[in-house]
Amino acid sequence: MSRVAMLIDESICMGCRGCQVACKQWNDLPAEATTQQGSYENPPDLSPVTWTRVKFIERTQGDNLQWLFLTQGCFHCGNPACVEVCPTGALKQDPELGIVTVEWELCNGCGYCTQFCPFGIPRLDTDLLSGEGKAYKCTFCQDRVTNGLPPACVKTCPSGAFHFGDREEMLSIGKDRVEKLQQAGFPNANLYGEHEMGGLGRLYVLKERPLAYGLPENPQYPAMASLWQDLVQPLGTLAFGAAALAMMGFYFVSRRNIKMEEVE
Amino acid sequence: MIGNKMRKVEQADEAGALRIRWIPKYSAMERVFHWGHTVTFLGLAMTGMILFFPFLRPLAQGESGQLIRLVHRATAIAYGVLPLIYIILEPRRALMSLKSVFKVSRYDVEWVKGMIPYYMFGRHEAIAPQDRFNTGEKMNAAIIILGSVVFAITGLLMWFGKGLLPIGFFQFMVLLHDIAMIVTVCMFIVHFYLAVVHPLMWAGLVSMRFGVTSAAYAQEHHALWYYGEDKANEIYEAKKSERAAKDE
C-alpha cells in the first residue's frame, strides 16, 4: 500500500462530534469533565484522552452567526519533526502508510514532541515534579487501517465529510471539491496540506483561508529541530571524541618529553 | 593526618630527610563543594546523555527512561544547591574565589603562551607566575560557572515551563542546554587530564584532597599568591634570563 491520507471536507462537516465519540470509543479513552466555556465546542482542547475534536469557530456576518468547523487531530506529516526529536524512538512513521504513531511502552514522557510539533498536536500526560508520563495523539487508528478498516472517525461520520485512503486519490477528491466550492461562491476555498511539512496526512477542504480556522498559513519544519539534531548533536559527539583524543595525544607527548627526575 | 592549618615540620636530624612546609589552600567547605560538584556533574552528564547519544536509546525508553529522568532532576537539585551552601557558609571565601576566577591579567596571557612548552615539554621557566588558581584552573572554573548558570536557567524553564512558554523559546532552551553540556563536558575532559592524568600535575589533586599544598610547590606554581606580584615578577624575569643564557 502507498501513503494514506484523511481528507476532511470542512464545508460538509455539521459539527455533530460523532468523530470525537467514535475516537474515544475505539481507543478506549475516558470522557473528560469540563465546564461551560460559552461555546458549543467541548472539550475545550485536545488532551491526552481527547485525540480528535471538532473546533467551533464563531463568526458574525452582519446579524448572522456562522460556524466554521475544524476536526482537529494529528496531521501525520510527511516530514514529522516529532519523530526526529523523539529520543526514545517511541514516535515513528510507518514507512509505507506514512502514519505517525507513539509506542507508549517506549515513551519516557520527555515531551519534546509536544514542543516541536508546529501544530501543537501531541499532548503530554505528566507529573510536573517527577516528569513521569507519556505523550498521546491520534494514531489514524493504525490497528484498524492495517486490517483494512477506515479509522473510527471516518467510519462514523454521518455527513460524509471524511474520506480516507490513498493520498493521491484524496488529493484529487479534495481539489475537485475546492473547485466546486469556488464556483459555488466560496472564493477563498482551498485544500490545506498538499505540500506543507512534506505533505500532510490530514488534508482539509476549507471554505476560508487557513488562518480563519486558526491553522498556520505556512507551517514550517522547526529550524531549531534541524539545528539541534543535525548540527549540534553530531558536532557535540565529534567534540567529545576530539577532546579525549587530544588529551591522550598530549599525554604521550608529555610523557616522552618531561623527565620526571629533573622535576623538583 | 594533615591538618588544615599551617604547620612546620621540625628540622630533621638526619641528613636527606624531607622537610615539607604545608600551607593551606582550600577550606574543607571548598573541597566538599568541589567533590560534590564533581559527583553531581558526572551524574547529570551521564543521566542526561541518554537523550543525547542514539546508542543509549534503549536506556531512554519507557520505565528506565522515566527513572533516569527522575534521577537527573533529583541530581540537578543537589547540583544547584551545593554552590548556594558554599556561598551561604563561606561568603567571603566564595567571593574571593569568584573574584580571582574572573580576574584577568597579563600573566594569564603569558600563561597561555607558555602552556605548550610547559605542559608538553616540562619547561618550567616558560610559565608565568600564577595566583591561587592558575589560568587553566580559572578558565575551567569560569566555563563551569557560566555553564552551570545556563544549565540552571534552561533546566528550570524546561522543567516548569513546558506548555507555558512559547514553543520556539522552549526549543531554544533545549538547544542551549545541549550546547552548555557539550562545552562543559569537553572542559571536564581537559580538566580531568590536567588534574589527574598529567605527569606533573599530581600536586593539585593532593591539595584538592587534603586542602594544603607544599610551600615549594606554591613558590613554583602559584608565585603571585605566595610572594605577591612584585617579587613573583622579579623571580619570573630572573628565571627567564637564566634559561636564555643557558640556551645560548
How would you sum up this structure, described in words?
- The complex is a heterodimer of chains A (264) and B (248).
- By secondary structure, chain A is an alpha+beta fold.
- Chain A has 2 domains: 1-221, Alpha-Beta Plaits, CATH 3.30.70; 223-262.
- Chain A is 30% helix and 19% strand.
- Chain A is built from 7 helices and 10 strands.
- A 4-stranded mixed beta sheet of chain A has the order 8-1-10-9. A two-stranded antiparallel sheet of chain A has the order 2-3.
- The longest helix of chain A is centred in the C-terminal third of the chain and has 35 residues, at 223-257.
- Chain B has 248 residues and is mostly helical.
- Chain B has a domain at 22-102 and 133-213: Up-down Bundle (Fumarate Reductase Cytochrome B subunit), CATH 1.20.950.
- Chain B contains 11 helices and 2 strands; from the N terminus they run βααααααααβααα.
- Chain B has helices at 28-48, 57-60, 62-89, 91-102, 106-121, 135-160, 167-197, 202-210, 215-221, 223-227, 229-247; strands at residues 22-24, 212-214.
- Chain B has a two-stranded antiparallel ribbon with strand order 1-2.
- In chain B, helix 1 (28-48) runs antiparallel to helix 3 and helix 6 (135-160) runs antiparallel to helix 7 (167-197).
- The model of chain B is unreliable at 1-12 (pLDDT under 50).
- At the A-B interface, helix 3 and helix 7 of A face helix 3, helix 5, helix 7 and helix 9 of B.
Walk across the major sheet of chain A and give the strand order: 8-1-10-9
What is the 3D form of chain B? elongated
Distance between the termini of chain B: 47 Å
Helix proportion of chain A: 25-40%
How would you spell out the order of helices and strands of chain A? Answer: EHEEHEEHEEHHEHEEH
Instruction: Write the element-wise H/E pattern of chain B from the N-terminal end onward.
Output: EHHHHHHHHEHHH
Number of helices of chain B: 11
Looking at CATH, the homologous superfamily of the domain at 22-102 and 133-213 in chain B is Transmembrane di-heme cytochromes, Chain C
Classify the fold: give the CATH topology of the largest domain in chain A: Alpha-Beta Plaits
Helix content of chain B: over 70%
First-last Cα distance of chain A: 77 Å
Strand order of the largest sheet of chain B: 1-2
